[in-house]
Specification:
Layout: H1 4-17, H2 19-26, E1 38-42, H3 49-65, E2 69-73, H4 80-87, E3 95-100, H5 102-109, E4 121-130, E5 132-137, H6 145-153, E6 160-163, H7 169-181, E7 186-189, H8 193-202, E8 207-211, H9 212-220, E9 224-229, E10 256-263, H10 268-283, H11 285-292, E11 296-300, H12 303-324
Parallel strand pairs: 1-2, 1-3, 6-7, 6-8
Antiparallel strand pairs: 3-10, 4-10, 4-11, 5-8, 5-9
Length: 326
């Protein structure tokens, strides 16, 4: 549970985010109402940050729009399988996707995608930003980022780092740091975070970047040590954890994020109502505190702002993937 200072900050921010809901209430009757249950497809496995966020938003949409909201996990192929289901769905506001930042990364990794990550979807809302942290086994001698990199240089490329898959955010963030630091380490790719953690806990790999939600139980149990956060600035969720930038790498920084999308052609009225219902849900103190336990912070904003953001992120990741030669 967040500390009292964090709770006050969350409460102040939730008051600001709730403001658009007043406009919605003032309009009276909504321009669009769902006629049957809404489905949110999560193209990843159950239990992760995206799945948890989708279920929080589903509860809010149900309360405000008056229809059941079902969350359906359709994992596989780096999120491509479930996302394609939504791209091919009827564009009437009743089928949505909750995707992570890998949605735009896939454009650089898979030239033959069965959909266009931007053109085949209508942005609804940026739901969360998710903090990515660098962790090492608790038995490792390094207490901070500089000492870890000094140790890694001395291994002459023999040390290994783990990731949850080639091209995943944990892979990209770690590879970008090592490139900037001029350090060579062997990359060991696993099928998801859980599989990667087993070898990291045993010390078979020496480092990993991952969503804080995924490593939090191991950090709290004293089995892993968090030594840096990837975001450009320190986060309220982990105020004592230094950033990679503070470790000597200006210009480094990034978070994972999630967003809600609808199929291209979804009526603007439906997008507007879904945006405002989701924004109101994200603004509640209960939602913000539950997200904080996942190492996530609610976002918000308009569909137009999300479209601009996604385009910028797709360009940024395309450059990074090319630079890293992935």
């Amino acid at each position: 549970m967040p500390q009292p200072v964090a709770r006050r900050a969350l409460l102040a921010a939730s008051t600001l985010l709730a403001a658009p809901a007043i406009t919605r209430a003032a309009r009276g009757q909504a321009a669009w109402k769902p006629e049957r249950p809404i489905r949110i497809v999560v193209p990843y496995t159950a239990g992760g940050a995206s799945d948890a966020t989708a279920r929080l938003i589903a509860g809010g949409l149900h309360t405000q729009l008056g229809q059941p909201v079902l969350v359906e996990n359709r994992p596989g192929a780096s999120g491509i399988i479930g996302t394609e289901v939504v791209a091919r769905s009827r564009p009437d506001g009743h089928t949505l996707a909750l995707v992570a930042s890998s949605h735009v990364v896939n454009a650089a990794l898979f030239p033959a995608l069965p959909f266009d990550p931007l053109q085949d979807f209508v942005p609804v809302i940026l739901t969360t930003t998710v903090q990515i942290v660098m962790v090492v086994p608790s038995s490792h001698s390094a207490q901070q980022l500089p000492s870890f990199l000094a140790w890694a240089r001395g291994q002459d490329g023999r040390a290994a780092y783990a990731s949850s898959g080639i091209g995943s955010n944990p892979h990209l963030f770690a590879a970008d740091l090592l490139r900037r630091a001029g350090v060579e380490m062997e990359h060991v790719s696993y099928r998801g975070s859980t599989a990667a953690h087993a070898d990291l806990l045993m010390g078979r790999t020496s480092m990993m970047f991952d969503a804080y939600a995924a490593v939090r139980p191991h950090v709290l149990a004293g089995m892993l040590r968090a030594i840096a956060v990837a975001s450009p600035e320190r986060t309220l969720l982990l105020p004592d954890l230094p950033t990679v930038v503070e470790g000597g790498f200006p210009g480094y920084g990034g978070t994972s994020w999630g967003c809600l999308l609808a199929p291209a052609g979804t009526p603007p009225g439906a997008v507007e109502e879904l945006n405002e219902a989701a924004r109101t849900t994200l603004a509640t103190l209960e939602t913000r505190e539950r997200l904080a336990l996942l190492g996530a912070e609610p976002a918000g904003g308009s569909p137009a702002a999300l479209r601009t953001f996604m385009r910028q992120e797709q360009e940024r990741y395309a450059t990074l993937v090319a630079t890293l030669g992935i």
